[in-house]
Design goal:
The protein is of the alpha/beta class. The protein has eight helices and six strands; from the N terminus they run E-H-H-E-H-E-H-E-H-H-E-E-H-H.
Length: 272
């Protein structure tokens, strides 16, 4: 049984949802089947996060690099995204969840934008939890876009070059409007970040789960948060003093060792 402290929750959790394709392949099914099961996992985790009291949850749903996948798979993902937004609309609104989206949203097909944009607008004033979908998103791309904005401001004379600070750059990144991620979880057994929330990741705690995303459930989320709560977050500062090591217990002398010790004491040292 995993115990989670209600007073020490991460404020912003990001999840790299990995393993849909492998889940399907292990069952001899098409990758599409894994994505469908992955959509069910999204529903479970959003509900678990809301019940737990998380303030912000960001899900890496579709990266800029995912456009290079086979056209049939991309089309299926877009249809599943539309179905998710339609089916979850009432639950999102009824439970005070604000839906947000980050990334190059202009690349999304109209069938997705037609349901995504109205739901974002209708949930704008909700404040119990912010659910952010990273769609056509890339961390490097977000940093480059923020840098271009600041470069334009410098060129226009609105700010001086020396006013381009880390905080000013951060303020141009939509992914961090809910704050830096405290905890980033990756499922599927891989140990990499895959271009997710790169700027805000500077001091995030990382948790890698071997569970494939379609099998990821509330208990797995709680395990990741319990792992986060067991860590000391220092942000570059000195941590708590480590407990001093206890001196080793003296070894009890056996008759043989005592005899050897006596013999060595009687040996005369000879200078060479």
């Amino acid at each position: 049984m995993v115990l989670v402290e209600a007073r020490n929750l991460p404020s912003h959790v990001g999840i790299i949802m990995d393993g849909n394709g492998r889940w399907a392949q292990l069952r001899g099914e098409a990758r599409v089947a894994g994505h469908k099961e992955g959509a069910q996992a999204v529903r479970r985790i959003v509900r678990a996060a809301r019940r737990l009291g998380l303030k912000a949850l960001t899900l890496y749903a579709f990266s800029e690099q995912n456009w290079a996948r086979p056209e049939e798979e991309v089309d299926t993902l877009m249809v599943l995204l539309r179905e998710f937004l339609l089916s979850e609309r009432d639950e999102i609104l009824d439970n005070g969840i604000r839906l947000n989206a980050i990334g190059n949203l202009g690349r999304l097909p109209s069938l997705v934008r037609a349901v995504l944009d109205p739901l974002r607008a209708d949930s704008e004033d909700s404040d119990r939890m912010t659910l952010t979908l990273a769609l056509s998103y890339g961390g490097r791309e977000e940093i480059a876009a923020a840098a271009r904005e600041l470069a334009e401001e410098v060129r226009a004379g609105h700010i001086d070059p020396d006013e381009v600070t880390t905080e000013r750059l951060r303020s141009r990144m939509p992914s961090l409007a809910v704050g830096d991620p405290d905890l980033v979880i990756r499922t599927g057994g891989e140990r990499r970040i895959s271009n997710f929330l790169l700027y805000g990741l500077a001091y995030a705690e990382l948790h890698f789960a071997d569970v494939l995303w379609p099998d990821f459930g509330a208990a797995d989320l709680y395990e990741a948060i319990a792992s986060y709560q067991a860590r000391e977050r220092r942000f570059g500062r000195v941590g708590k003093p480590a407990a001093p090591l206890a001196p080793p217990a003296p070894l009890s002398a056996s008759p043989i060792s005592a005899a050897l010790a006596g013999a060595s004491a009687s040996i005369t040292r000879i200078a060479i």
